[in-house]
Amino acid sequence: MTSAPTARRSIRRRPPIVFVALGVLGTLIFVVPLLGLLQKTPWSDLPELLTSDIVIDALRLSLISSVAATLIALVLGVPLAWLLARVDFPGRRLVRAVVTLPMVLPPVVGGAALLFALGRRGFVGGPIYDATGFVLPFSIWGVIVANTFVAMPFLVVTVEAAFVNLDQRFEGAAATLGASRLTVFRRVTLPMIAPSLAGGLVLTWARALGEFGATATFAGNLQGRTQTLPLAVFVSLESDRGAAIAISLVLVAISLVVLIGLRDRWWLRR
Amino acid sequence: MSGLNAHLIVQRGDGFLLDVEIQIEQGQTVALLGPNGAGKSTLVSALAGLIPLDGGRIVLNGAVLDDVDADVFVAPEQRRLGIVFQDYLLFDHLTVLDNIAFGPVSRRSERSTARRSAKGWVDDLELTGFEDRKPPEISGGQAQRVALARALAADPELLLLDEPLAALDATTHVRLRRMLGEHLGGCRAPRLLITHDPTDAFLLADFVYIVESGRITQTGTPDEIRRHPATAYVADVAGTNLFAGVSEHGSVLIDGTHFTLHTADTSVDGAVLVTVHPRAVALHPAEPHGSPRNTWLARVEGIERLGDTTRVLLDGPLRLAADITPNAAEALALQPGTEIWAAVKATEIGISAA
C-alpha cells in the first residue's frame, strides 16, 4: 500500500461550459416541480392537514404495505436470486425475464393481470374464494400483493448481481472448514453481499411506497382499506388540493430522508 | 492405512489434463513444486472436493473421499481438511478470532469452546492483540498467520498449504517461512505444500514432487532433487548450475562462451548438458593449486542468504552459483564486485547427452 501524500496540489480545471449548462438544465427538471409543490403549500394549515383522517389512514396503510412487501421480497427474492445466479436450470433465462418484467411493464397492466388471476373469478383466486370465501383484491392483502409484484424485481435484480459478482472461492473456503451449505450461506455469502442486499431492500421499499397503478387497479381506492399515500394524493387533487400537497410533502420527505441517509453508506462506497 | 493416498485425474474444460499420484504419511511434509500452469490449483480444488475427479481416487486415513470407479464423493464440508489458500480468503466481515474459530464453530462445537481453542491459536501464532481486528486491518504477514491458524484450528486430517508464502514481500517471506516450519512440526496430519518456490519446498518439505504440465516429473528428497535434477525446470529452480555445451573426451566447451569445463566423465561426446551443484563450487581468495581441474577468476555478482547456506552468484567467464557457509562468506569478505577464484573438481561435474 502506498501512503497517501500529505499535501496534494489541487489543480482546478474549468469544466466544459456545455456540460455545466446541460447539467444545470437537468437538475432543474427535478428542482422546479419541487418548488411548485413548496410554493403552493398552505403552510399555516399544514399541521391540521397532516393530522386529517385521510392522511393518517393513507400513511399507516402505505407504511404497513410497503414494509410487508419488502419483507416478502426479502424472503422470496433472495433464494430466487441465488437460484438465478448459481443454478443452471432449464428455462433460467425465461424465469429471469418473467421476474423482471414488472420493471418495464406499465403497473396498470400488472394490476389488471393480478386481478384476472387472483380476483374472485380468477383461475387462482376463484378456487380460493369458493373454498374459503377469502377475496384478495380490494383489501390490504391486495395492496401488499400489488406492491410486491411491482417492487420485488428490484431486489431480485440487485441481489442476483451481487451473487454473480461474489468470489465463490470464499464459500469454498468456508465449506472446507466444515460449514454446511446453509451455514456457508448464512455466515459467509449473506454478510458478503450485505451492502447490495441493503441497497436492493431500499430500492424495493421505495418502489413499493410510490406504487400507484397496480394498487389502484388490483386493490382499488378505499380510504382506510386500500388507499395508500399516492392514491390519496390522486384523490385529493380533485377534492382538497391542500391535502394533496400535504401528502406529497410527506412522500418527498420520507424519500429524501431515506435516500440521503442510505446513499452514502451503501450505494456510493468509494 | 494412514496418511494420504491419492491418484488425481482431472480433465479441465480447457483441455488441460492433471494426472498425478501422491502419497503422504502422517506427520510428513510433502512439497508439490512446479511452475505456474502446472495444475497445482486444480489439484488443491480436487483434494478439497471443490471439483470432482474425472478419474482415480482420494483416500485419507483409510476413508475414501473421492473414487470415480466406486462412485463415491464426499462433500468438501465432510472432509477434514485444513487449507491455507494462496490469497488466504479470510472472511473480511469476521474478526480475526471468529475467522480462526470458523472451523470449530461450523463443526458444531460450542461457540465458547471454539473461541477458547481459537484463542490458543491466536497466542501460538503471535496474533495476540489482533483478535478483534478485521482482516483488512492487519498486515500480510499477520493475515498469513490467521489463515494458518484458521486451518489448524479445524483440527484437519490433511493440511494443505497452497502457495502460503507467495503473497508476502521478501523479508516477511523469510521470517514466516521459518515460523511455518516450526508450526508444521506441531501438526500430526499429513501436510502438502503447494509451491512454485524451490527454496520453500526444499526448506519445509521432507519429500518433494515436481509437477510440470499436469504430470509428476520427479520425486525425491530435497537433497536428491537438488543433486540429480531430472528436467531442465528442476535444474533451473533447484539452483543447480546447468549449461549446454559440446564435449570432447571430457573437455566441454560451454555454449556461448570460450570457457571449457573438464569433467571426469569421458563417456559422452557431442552435445551435452552439464550440471554443477552450487555446493561443488569452492571459493578461494588466491589461485588454488593442487587437485581441482577447473579454476578461474570470477567476480561476485550477488550474495543471498538461504537458511544455513550462503549462495554466491558469480560472474566472469562462466555465470554460476556457489553455495558456501555463512562463516566462509564472512571470512572471504565477499561483496558484490569482489574478485575471487572459483574451483570445481572434475568429479563434481555432471554430464549427460543433450
Q: Please give the order of strands in the largest beta sheet of chain B.
A: 7-8-9-3-10-11
Can you tell me the CATH class of the largest domain in chain B?
A: Alpha Beta
As for the CATH topology of the largest domain in chain B, it is Rossmann fold
The helix content of chain B is 10-25%
The domain tally of chain A reads 1
Most extensive interface: A-B, 19 and 24 residues
How are the SSEs ordered, and which strands pair?
The complex is a heterodimer of chains A (270) and B (354).
Chain A: H1 17-40, H2 46-50, H3 53-86, H4 92-100, H5 107-118, H6 125-132, H7 140-165, H8 169-176, H9 181-209, H10 213-219, H11 229-239, H12 241-267
Helix pairs in contact in A: 3-7, 3-9, 3-11, 5-10, 7-9, 7-10, 8-9, 9-12, 11-12
Chain B: E1 4-11, E2 17-24, E3 29-33, H1 40-48, E4 55-60, E5 63-67, E6 72-73, E7 81-84, H2 96-100, H3 102-106, H4 111-124, H5 140-153, E8 158-162, H6 170-185, E9 191-195, H7 198-204, E10 207-212, E11 215-220, H8 222-227, H9 232-237, E12 241-248, E13 251-254, E14 260-262, E15 270-276, E16 282-284, E17 294-306, E18 309-315, E19 320-324, H10 326-331, E20 339-344, E21 349-353
Parallel strand pairs in B: 3-9, 3-10, 7-8, 8-9
Antiparallel strand pairs in B: 1-2, 1-4, 4-5, 5-6, 10-11, 12-13, 12-15, 13-14, 15-21, 16-20, 17-18, 17-20, 18-19
Helix pairs in contact in B: 4-5, 5-6
